[in-house]
Amino acid sequence: MKITKFLLTLCACLSCTLWLHAQRNGMPWPDTDGHHINAHGGNVIKYGDRYYWYGENRPDRGFTTEVGIEVYSSTDLRQWKDEGCALAVTEEPGHDIERGCIMERPKVVYNARTKKFVMLFHLELKGRGYEAARVAFAVSDTPTGPFRFLRSTRLHAGKWPFDMSRAQRKAAMATDANAWKDWWTPEWRKETEKGMYLWRDFQGGQMSRDMTVFIDDNGKAYHITSSQENLTLLVSELTPDYLDFTGKYNTIAPGGQNEAPTLLKHGGRYWLICSGCTGWAPNAARMFVSKSIWGPWTALDSPFTGSDATLYPDATDQPRTFPASKTFGAQGTYILDLGDVQYFMADVWNPSHLRRSLHLWLPITYDKEGTPVIRWTEMPFQK
User: How far apart are the C-alpha atoms of 84 and 189, rounded to whole Å?
Assistant: First the structure.
């Protein structure tokens, strides 16, 4: 009896500790079953009185998708219940989402007109590494799914950016991506800025890798993605049902090498926060601002500032410290706008054990000019 009572007390203490950690950045975030939340690269929406968190169900070892896109639900953003797989891989050979493909950066949005939940995500086909570079669409009648896979595609085959002049198109068509064996030379960069990779992929469609989806005040939806070998960002208008592209698109920071885009509208301006391209390693965030979703975009300093972050990957690992200049060790995935507060959602990637990658939710504040500022905080929901 004494042993049973001791075990019950121990379990209660561990449970309290887990819930404390669930609200603390830099530590594992357990769900209501005590398991670290396995929803990476995703986003959060509110529907009814509940929040839904979608993300990559990552394996503990390896990089391919073996399960699918996971979804969790919560009423308070603190306690998250695992609702299971919102979109599962299939065992059908040759299918776009066959087990062993790569499904990344899922974003789910609710379409008030069609009453459907629409999921877009970055898809790589099984056995082809990161060559396919597609965007995929899925749809559901309920927030927890199951979502029905529709299709995957490259972007805007045979279409030029709407704001590209005739002279600019001619210059792009004069480039030849196959002629450059050595990248990063000044000459190569000039050709890239002219639209060399835009032209290379013109007929087959533009690449789409790290991505987000943004719903504007008027209900219009936009897909922002890292394209052209992760060198250039594309912003594309979605159709009213959010299930396709209208064909209207343009580029952001051609040749700038940006990925992991996140977008926020505040003070009548659009704020784009993304990362550099250094694989799984953290780097300095980049920020751009524009009065229009279509630009022009002005490059600004990183919004991250202040004291260092100390992270505790798990109980067996030594703590690690990251400065603001390295985005506190994280890479952005989404900006959750709750009206009175906005959170920069990010992953601290653990490439050896992707399932254990940490989550950071950092409140966004604004300076006197209305520019976003992001500082380290351990307790994101502390009032």
Answer: 45
Task: Determine contact, residues 188/197, Cβ cutoff 8 Å.
Answer: no
**Architecture per CATH, 31-153:** 5 Propeller (2.115)
The answer to whether the beta carbons of residues 305 and 371 sit under 8 Å apart is no
N- to C-terminal Cα separation, the chain: 42
Q: Quote the Cα angle for 349-351-354, to 5°.
A: 70
Place of tokens 């190569």: 188
pTM: 0.93
CA 282 centroid distance within chain? 15
- Per the listing, tokens 């502390």 go with 382
User: Tens of pLDDT along 54-63?
Assistant: 999 999 999 9
Residue pLDDT, tens place only, 258-317: 999 999 999 999 999 999 999 999 999 999 999 999 999 999 999 999 999 999 877 567
**Domain boundaries in the chain?**
31-153
Coil/strand/helix, residue 349: coil
Residues near 103 by beta carbon (within 8 Å), at least 6 away in sequence: 56, 65, 68, 69, 87, 89, 97, 121, 122, 123, 136
Contact between 195 and 175 (Cβ < 8 Å):
yes
| Best CA proximity match to 259, nearest among 275, 236, 283 | 275
In angstroms and rounded to an integer, the radius of gyration of the C-alpha atoms of the chain is: 21
What's the Cα-to-Cα distance from 310 to each of 22, 324, 383, rounded to whole Å? Answer: 16, 11, 21
DSSP-derived 3-state class of residue 7 = helix
Q: Of all helices (H) and strands (E), which one includes residue 21?
A: helix 2-22
335 in Cβ contact with 45 (< 8 Å): no
Residue 247's region, left for phi above 0, alpha for psi from -120 to 50, else beta, is left
| Distance of alpha carbon 356 from alpha carbon 354, whole angstroms | 5
